[in-house]
Amino acid sequence: MTTDSDVAARAAAAFSDRYGGKPDGLWAAPGRVNLIGEHTDYNDGFVLPFALPERVVVAAARTDAGWTACSDFTTETVTFGDVEAAAPGAVTGWAAYVAGVVWALRDAGFDVPPARLAIASDVPVGAGLSSSHALECAVLTALADLGDLDLPIEDRPRLVQRSENAYVGAPTGIMDQSASLRCRAGHALFLDCRSLEVEHIPFDVAAEGLAVLVLNSNAPHSHSDGEYGARRRSCEDAARILGVPALRDVPADGLETALKQLDDAVVRRRVRHVVTEDQRVLDTVELLRSGRIREIGPLLTASHASMRDDFEITVPQVDVAVEAALMAGAYGARMTGGGFGGCVLALIDADRAEAITAAVTSAYDQHGFTAPTPLVAVPSPGATRVG
Ligand code: GAF
Fold it and tell me: Which of 20, 87, 289, 357 has a C-alpha 20 to 30 A away from that of 329?
């Protein structure tokens, strides 16, 4: 068996430690950064994420009955059988992400193989880089292979979303699973969240002397689940009032007319964010298709302003990071992910990563914030077998 990274080696070692022997295989799924298109996925709109090199790796082997999972970040080993796998919510904590995938597969009629799983990860947790979706996608990929399930790649994101929505209980959209499962190295994933059609858009920043710097604001996520659900309900209510299936159906040039039909100023702001953000994704894709990477900078920054002022999902830490990165020469910067903390991304000249990190760190220092944690995000492949 070959392993292609420390994380894979850790997963294999965790398997041997807890269960003895060797796994049947190793499967990896990455975290993601969303280049642009925030809170548009559950509005049937457009998103443009790319996968990170940071991954969850699952070492797995078939067994006789039930499912057992352990992870190298906890001493806990969780076992569940048919009963728990049939009852959303029966398994809680980190293992819910494993049980949820088993449940979603079985609920869709698949004969899921009983298995032992050992998990390792280097996706930062709680940073808005989709560590939990990476775990679910790695588990799904492992179980699909182990059971030789006839499960086309296009159908996999919806199953992971069902696991997340109905078993784990988080009302998330379809972006993160699609990114983790379907991204390609050197490309961003242009996803139409209604049709689920994808286009792999070349995004070779290094070839242009550029980099995407990701700074974890280390801001604690507060009430993020409740706020996320509230934003989602507000968008769905607005679509109902406007008489459209989803906010995606409000065209950018019909925005002013739509806003006049909405009495509530807060709802008007939410709608303006979603409609303008969809258009920014389309504009970004157009620029990338013609190789004009630097020119997407202002769209990234406009996306941030829209999240800050209209969708109201930023916190001071991310606003300060965006401002400081721009002052230090970034072409554009924005918060990425669900919001209320998490990470900021900045499109920068590759040789400016240290200088821009230092500028943001110094601004954080002045505000009394905990220093940000940097990583340079390289567009990487989606979920795959790695050993
Ligand atoms: C979270 C969700 F999981 C995604 O579905 C998406 O809505 C995102 O927030 C905001 O764009 O990552």
Answer: 289
